[in-house]
Amino acid sequence: MTQLLGIAPVIAIDGPAGAGKSTAARDLARRLGFLLLDTGAIYRSLALQARERRVAWNDERTLADLARHLRIEFVPLPDGTQAVFVDGRDVSAPIRTPEISEGASRVSALPAVREALLDLQRLIAAEGRYVVEGRDIGTVVLPWAPVKFFLTASAEVRAQRRHEELRGRGQSSDLAATQAEIEARDQRDQSRAVAPLRAAEDAIRIDTSKMALEEVVTELERVARTRLGV
Description:
CATH superfamily: P-loop containing nucleotide triphosphate hydrolases
Helix content: 40-55%
Strand order of the largest sheet: 2-6-1-7-8
């Protein structure tokens, strides 16, 4: 498996919540003609499934068992986004709520859960040319990826982006509370015992705080095409 992935033209994009990596990864994949793998959606789907089955987000053993049997499918949409299906059901909307975002952060901190989902992520990435987005792609999931990026931004900017995103979906949002949630998630992601959030040593770091999305994606595309020859 490692040898197969080692020669695959995979692009890893990591970073904290609100850094713009999801949108940038989607647009980069579209420009390059690659597929997109949003690994955060996998953890969100697990958190949603656990909530619906009344499994606590700290029940590591049960969550790991759910993770091993998670049936998830990503379906490309005409606008460049993806629909996420679990057990044949479209969960694209419910996995994006603040509650499930919190749940995803909590279940992803559990070692047994991360181990259970590691092979799933690698197997999906091995199926084609992928832009893979998450928090430990370049460090743990695909450390042999030939192109790695780490996107970041200030907590204030990330909170404002998240606040506007939620308001745009018609969901209520308090900016101060949103920033507090982001900072708490940063602390949890960076301090967890397994696969903490950090940039891979060979990742290209990009601070998106003062950059427009177009600028970010253009820079990602420039580097990717140069390194992969695509």
